[in-house]
Fold this sequence. Notes:
Layout lengths: L4 H10 L17 E4 L5 E5 L4 E9 L2 E11 L4 E8 L2 H4 L4 H16 L2 E10 L2 E10 L4 E10 L2 E10 L6 H9 L1 E2 L7
Antiparallel strand pairs: 1-2, 2-10, 3-4, 4-5, 5-9, 6-7, 7-8, 8-9
Amino acid sequence: MGRGRSAGGWLRAVGLVLLLACGGSEGGSEWVSVTAEDGTFSFRMPGEATRTTRHLTTPVGPVPVQVHMYQTAEESFMVNYTDYPPEVLGELSVEELLDGARDGAIASSAGMLLEHRSIDLEGVPGRAVRISAAGGEVEVQGRFFVVDTRLYQILATTSTEDATSPRVASFLDSFVLHRGGGLM
């Protein structure tokens, strides 16, 4: 798996975190299983994830965003979720919320949409996207899902050269929703 130094520099410049400014963890190549504190989901990352809480400004005040992230100079893997108060979502449909997540990822990465498709995860509606950023040197692959008022975002950011690596597919495919964990 080739990694160019310029792509690594671009990843840092892009910030690697598409929707929030948060720190990552460095190093390691051991895959780590992570289960959410509330038991609603799990996933695997290619290294130890850092967990942080950030806040998203909404019309009814700040909303916490739970972020799990693993980051190196060459790549970033992130799973985050936001529990929106019903009054924030208002009359938004699930489709509009998913499209908004897609549009936010494009805007935050200053990228260009390469691919967009509707998906589902065991009946849960979602979107899959590929975004080109940093002048085509960086690719972001993401999946977004909505359960009740919770938006999940699963994002992998790598050099364009590494975008088709098994690591990216393994990470994206590892996300699992668990029934009986409070949602669904």
